[in-house]
Amino acid sequence: MAQPNHDPTAGDVLGVYLRSQATAFLRALRLHDAGAAGAGGGGPDAGAEAEAAHGLRGAARRIASSLSTFRAVTQAAWADPLRSELVWLSSTLADEHAYAARLSRLMEALQRLSASPEVPAPRGSASGALTVGSARAGALLERQLTLARTRAHSATLQALGSARFHAVADAVAVLASEVPLDPVAATGPLHDVLTPLAAAARTRLETAVAALPATDASAPYSAHADAAWHEVRRLLRVHRYAQEALGEDSPRLAAASEALNQHRDASEAATASATAARTPRIAPATAYALGVLHADQRHAVEASRLTFHSLWEPAAVS
């Protein structure tokens, strides 16, 4: 049994963090089940379900990330399969929310652009605003993204009712009470074990940031760079969760992470508008509206990149 004033070991710190996240996962699962049943028995509560799904995603990501970053401190034969299953779960749960948020973002952008006198008129039109085609563009996006969201919702319900999910929930329940740790590594001092592993996560992030293409007027925008930025976003999240496990918090990292979330949202919204524009036999005015929408979201992508750089490396951004 640990003495009250002993220096914390790697197992002490990681165990506390993983148990807290496992408890958060199980709490969110209970809320989700209650929301699905309806608070008063009157049918599903969509708001409660969405909030609980958000909690499930967050806890699943944190546990999976910690089992990866601090793998050496856990019993890998147990931790590795659970990490893979939690990645599957968080990805499945994220899809429905992503489609809904993307549709909302694009509809708001269409409204804003339609009301703007600065948007150039389509060729051959006397209109100075985006009025022609915007309604049809919105209807087309709504059909496509609502269908995708409906399919994602069905996939989520199927996943949460599966034996695979119940096995994950059982494993997380075990984690909430007892963390399977490596008997040797877990007894090492915190600063000798966890701190170097967290530093390695930061180094991977720094390497990925350094490899990003230039974000300035001399480097024309390229959508091919999106994948590299999405990887930086993932690595930043891993780094933040590692710091969180060590009891450290950085508002600057949180803001940088939010900038990359905005980057991801704008990038995927631009892709959705480009996909809609490739729909066969749409009217030229509709295609024009979707093209303006695509350009607007690409501008948002570039703005998010500059925001990230200003937070990550303030001295390098004028």
Automatic annotation (TrEMBL):
Top-level taxon in the UniProt lineage: Bacteria
Region: Disordered, residue numbers: 258-277
Alphabetical list of InterPro entries matching this protein: CHAD_dom (IPR007899), CHAD_dom_sf (IPR038186)
Boundaries of every CHAD domain copy: 18-317
Bias (Low complexity): 268-277
Family annotation (Gene3D superfamilies): CHAD domain
The protein, known as: Metal-binding protein
Species per Swiss-Prot/TrEMBL record: Streptomyces katrae
Source taxonomy: Bacteria, Bacillati, Actinomycetota, Actinomycetes, Kitasatosporales
